[in-house]
Write a structure and sequence with these properties.
Belongs to the binding-protein-dependent transport system permease family. By secondary structure, the chain is mostly helical. The chain contains 14 helices and no strands. The two termini are 26 Å apart.
């Protein structure tokens, strides 16, 4: 463990991170947001899922610094009387979990397809890549909206609300796997003709072992960069679906459903219900994308300075 930590400290990745102020600030902000969201049950002033702690008479209260605000609710309350700080902390946790879950599903499907297509080649490669092309020809949000709407029509809104989190993970994951497949396939095509792969064939290793134990580790740098960007995309997709009423229900708030819930009140004066969740969402996506850009530059061998 100590040796691994020392190796990381001596690595170019850590050296580059220490010299990049934007990466340091982005990581610090992301760390704060993640800690706040996942520690919400411990540090949030109120539990937005506990009906006994919610008073409808406190609905649409402005932030504490405004004339009609209360010190009990720092950023005000939503239309249901829930404390906005607490609701955003719980909502951000859901948004992050859905984003991470969707990216894991994308990675599993896309990496498997890319490895098989790139290594085996031939007609199977053509079939899988045409399948990916067909998937990419449809906008991600269009696929997600279509699947979500079909499920709600077939099983009803109440059943959808019960399974909203896993369904959103599946919907967003299925819509974005071609990004991984195409990138991994390109990396595999560059790796499979190298000497270590030929040596593995000579000693009689199976195709599956060669693909997953030898070639896959050499494609992980590109996969890591894609994953960082895709987490931000998945969070935005969840927010967009929730804003359209096809994502998280109002009683299980995510950042997107909070923005949607408060949008109809924004012109009536209760602007904080939409504004503050929107700021948190933009900040979360921004810092993830900035870290993704930094990671892409660091892992690009053409930009390596030595």
């Amino acid at each position: 463990m100590k040796q691994s930590l020392q190796n990381f400290k001596d690595s170019y990745l850590f050296y580059s991170f220490k010299r990049d102020k934007i990466a340091i600030v982005s990581f610090a902000i992301l760390l704060v947001l993640v800690v706040l969201s996942f520690s919400a049950p411990l540090i949030a002033p109120y539990n937005p899922y506990d009906a006994e702690s919610i008073d409808i008479m406190n609905s649409e209260m402005p932030p504490a610094w405004m004339e009609e605000g209360s010190s009990e609710f720092l950023l005000g309350t939503d239309q249901q009387g829930r404390d906005l700080v607490s609701t955003m902390m719980y909502g951000m946790r859901l948004s992050i979990l859905i984003g991470l879950g969707a990216v894991m599903l994308q990675a599993v499907i896309g990496i498997s397809v890319g490895l098989i297509a790139g290594y085996l080649g031939g007609r199977l490669d053509n079939f899988l890549m045409r399948l990916a092309d067909i998937q990419l020809s449809f906008a991600t949000m269009l696929v997600a909206i279509l699947v979500s709407a079909i499920f709600q029509t077939m099983f009803g809104a109440s059943r959808y609300n019960e399974l909203a989190v896993p369904l959103l993970v599946i919907i967003i994951g299925i819509a974005e796997w071609p990004q991984y497949a195409r990138t991994v396939r390109a990396s595999v095509l560059g790796e499979k003709g190298k000497e270590y792969v030929e040596a593995a064939k000579v000693v009689g290793l199976s195709k599956a072992r060669i693909m997953f134990r030898h070639i896959l580790p050499n494609t992980m740098s590109s996969v890591l960069v894609i994953s960082t960007v895709q987490v931000a995309n998945a969070v935005m997709s969840e927010a967009a679906l929730s804003f359209l009423g096809l994502g998280m229900p109002v009683n299980r708030p995510s950042l997107g459903s909070l923005i949607n819930a408060g949008f109809e009140y924004i012109f009536s004066g209760a602007w904080w219900i939409t504004l503050f969740p929107g700021i948190f969402l933009v900040l979360l996506v921004l810092v993830i994308n900035l870290l993704g850009d930094w990671l892409r530059d660091v892992l690009n061998p053409k930009l390596y300075k030595g």
